[in-house]
Amino acid sequence: MTDRPNISTAVHQHSGGENLEVMREARKYNQYLRELIQRFAGDAKTALDFGAGIGTFSDSVDVPRNQIHCVEPDEGVQEHLANQGFKAHKDLAEVADSSIDYLFTLNVLEHIEDDSSALREIFRVVRPGGRLLIYVPAFMSLYTSMDLHVGHHRRYRMAQLVDIVEKAGFRVEKRAYFDALGFFATLLFKLFDSPEPAPLNSRMVGLYDRFVFPASRILSVPLARVLGKNVYVVASRPKSSSE
Known about the structure:
By secondary structure, this protein is an alpha/beta fold. The longest helix is centred in the C-terminal third of the chain and has 18 residues, at 202-219. It is 35% helix and 19% strand. The chain has helices spanning 17-23, 27-39, 75-83, 115-125, 145-149, 158-167, 180-191, 202-219, and strands at 47-50, 68-71, 87-89, 100-106, 126-137, 171-178, 230-236.
């Protein structure tokens, strides 16, 4: 039996933690992400949040906490997650084969250098018939010093994300870009980019979340196959090799 790859969700040493704190205040955006997770959960009895952080989105599914697995490499964060009632793991190697009904991962895959290996490990733990949701930053044309600062190896085009998901063995059910106005806001940010990015401005994030994001969410529907600041894929593991 060969050793399983150690697919860690650890990121660049400059993790941009201050930006994560600011984004926690983007209430409308975060509520959308919770709704997105819930929308594709189906009747899952077990779930896994890959790259759970402190568990901000881990309880977005209607699953008992003791059946929600959270993967995070930091021991202190693992203890925090366990104290909340989640099943905490340092990496996917600790999760049994075909044991997860629904795996979701938000803004994590871009931090992993070998994303293809990560997808194969994800495929291993998802049960046949189970479902996967991946949400990541879109378009390398939007890559800025902020991406570098927080440890992003890449941003994804839809076709690229679909390709690696399908090569891992999943069948893609839905694909879409999201946050259309965020695409243009990031382009504007890039015009003033510098090697040492300033932390996100909490006031600007709050204004965008309150006044711009609702319009961006609506506009993202007709532009789902064209552009957005982010892209997501929903896929399932076939029940048999013939599917």
